[in-house]
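Handover notes (outgoing to incoming on-call)

Open items:
1. Chlorophyll synthase: sequence verified, structure written out, both below. Nothing else pending on this one.
2. Nothing else urgent.
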Amino acid sequence: MPIEPLSTIALIIRFLKPVTWIPVIWSFLCGAVASGAFGWHDILGAKFLLGMLLTGPLASGTCQMLNDYFDRDLDEINEPNRPIPGGSISLKNATILISIWAVLSVIVGYLIHPLIGLYVVIGIINAHLYSANPIKLKKRLWAGNTIVAVSYLIIPWIAGEIAYNPQVTLASLQPSLIVAGFFTLSSIGTMTINDFKSIEGDRQVGIRTLPVVFGEQRAATIAAVLINLGQLFAAIYMVLIGQPTYGIVVAALILPQFFLQFPLIKEPAQWDVRYNAIAQNFLVAGMLVCAFAIQAARL
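Chlorophyll synthase structure tokens:
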């Protein structure tokens, strides 16, 4: 029986995993704000809409499809209802979709700025390094979450800045690189918490995530330390660039996360999803506060 058009569209959307687009879109927005050349009137501009399309359904969607493609054996254990292991999408059709999406991503990135087109290529390479054998960085403890955090935070943040300040230099990018680097450290922690949901499957196929290697409570403790340190460093950096008020706000946003970490560490398997759903709101708010601080420091 042929698939109805709406069912096909819904299936493709599920394959693209929209929930994963949000942090990448947010990082692009933070980079745009930090550039000092972005105003809220730009939200309806073609450049911003192309940026949302790129960092959301196109580039992030491509990387998610690649992850599903290379992780199909693992998903048979952890998420058997995903499109490939569930049989909804064949490997041939998945390959075609991934190829089309990858080309579209690079084209849209290039239209915004040639360097962004290059960053898209780097992001797609990172997705291969993360998921594909024989390298498969997700098996290698710290390396997997680190490369994902870089792709989710540093690359889109710098892309957002370049989009609105195309004459950037390495010196002008330095504040954004430093802040995005600090939040990358925090993001490694949040991704470690995300690993709790697949601990059994990861253990079976030999993927060495922090929960698998160190156990749930120790991994949760490590994740909490990384989350807090990254934001604390960002708050201190706000003071160093002459924006202490912003630094105080970023530091204050750590507090609700800190208190939520006590039940997380006590019962990681019960609190992982709940923690990320609540605590990440404060973390991403801190990212935007830092972007405004960088913008203010440029004036």
